[in-house]
Write a structure and sequence with these properties.
- With about 350 residues, the protein is mostly helical.
- About 70% of the residues lie in helices and about 0% in strands.
- It is built from 20 helices and no strands.
- Helix 8 crosses helix 9.
- It is globular, with a radius of gyration of 21 Å.
Length: about 350
């Protein structure tokens, strides 16, 4: 019997164990790594990514010298696509999204919202979701000092007072939670939430969620155009897009893709708008087309869509981000606007 496979297995286990001892169990954002986390693959990826991060950090520091705000430009767009270092992320998000300008134009507004008239149903809805928000993040656990649940509650309450047509909707807790982890600033998190919910993702979180439903249908149309075999499979088994991608849109890939990958997607989302979500979705589907097409049933398709958001392809965020701007091919805002108009009209006639 050949002892080589057994020997390789032992070596693999030893390497995995060694990596487990070197890679912290809690990631830089406070999330506990899952039980099945592949420490060895992650360590291998991160050693090369760290070199990229260091190089980008030097370039960003030069770009951001002085105290002037971050303005949109081709150079900034190029830099953002290659990733914003964590220490500059909040400042860049605030600048390119317009949140910084809004905050400066409305001094004291956020604190006035917190003093607003009591709204029992809004407060109850937010409170209900507090313990469900990132139970795997040590900074949101009740034992944490400070516990970010209070900050999260304030941001969501202020937003509910600010945008009463939306109030509070499940999914916003996760988005606000990520914003708080990155900005470490309550007021900035509020203004970034306003940029996302109010401008970048129109009508995603309103009671009828028409914008969200529209964009799921738009994705379906784009798949028909760009990956027709997958569209045919979905149609053949009667699988609605909302069943497999609604959480991608509602949570902007939080808890779907690895944290670092989500943040890289958000870097571009704040600068380039909602088109980025379609690029990510199309890349995930196109890259795993062969796997998806192996599905032979309704349940099988749903399972494949869970599988395609795991593994090295999504963990290696730098190459993943390069892929989203090449893999789906051209994707103009004109096309998306046209599809949104037709899909929206269709949804409205369906009532």
């Amino acid at each position: 019997m050949d002892p080589a496979p057994a020997e390789q297995g032992r070596r693999g286990d030893a390497a995995s164990q060694a990596a487990r001892e070197r890679v912290p169990r809690i990631d830089p954002y406070g999330f506990e790594r899952p039980e099945d986390f592949d420490y060895a693959s992650y360590e291998e990826f991160f050693s090369t990514y760290l070199v990229i991060l260091t190089r980008r950090a030097i370039k960003w520091s030069k770009l951001l010298k002085g105290n002037s705000g971050v303005q949109k430009s081709m150079k900034v767009k190029r830099y953002i696509r290659k990733g914003i270092p964590l220490e500059h992320r909040a400042r860049v998000w605030m600048g390119v999204s317009g949140a910084q300008a809004r905050m400066e134009q409305n001094p004291g507004y956020y604190h006035r919202l917190l003093q607003g008239e009591k709204n029992d149903s809004l407060e109850e809805a937010i409170r209900t979701d507090m313990n469900r928000t990132f139970p795997d993040n040590i900074k949101f656990q009740k034992t944490a000092d400070p516990c970010l649940q209070k900050t999260l509650y304030n941001v969501l309450l202020a937003y509910g007072h600010h945008n009463q047509s939306v109030g509070y909707c499940q999914g916003m807790n996760f988005i606000a939670g990520y914003l708080i982890l990155i900005t470490k600033n309550e007021e900035e998190s509020f203004w970034l939430l306003d940029a996302l919910v109010g401008r970048i993702l129109p009508d995603y979180y309103s009671p009828a969620m028409l914008g969200l439903k529209t964009d799921q249908e738009v994705l379906g149309e784009l798949v028909k155009m760009k990956i027709p075999a997958v569209a045919d499979l979905m149609e053949g088994h009667g699988v609605l897009w909302t069943l497999v991608v609604s959480r991608w849109f509602i949570c902007l890939f939080i808890d779907i893709l690895p944290v670092e990958t989500v943040l890289r997607i958000w870097d571009c989302l704040f600068n380039e708008g909602s088109k980025v979500i379609f690029r990510v979705a199309l890349t995930l589907i196109k890259q795993h087309q062969a796997l998806i097409l192996e599905a032979t049933s309704f349940a099988d398709i749903c399972d494949k869509f869970k599988q395609i958001t795991k593994g090295n392809f999504v963990t290696e965020c730098h190459t993943f981000m390069q892929k989203i701007f090449s893999e789906p091919g051209s994707l103009s805002m004109t096309t998306i606007t046209r599809l949104r108009e037709s899909c929206r009209a269709k949804l409205l006639t369906q009532g």
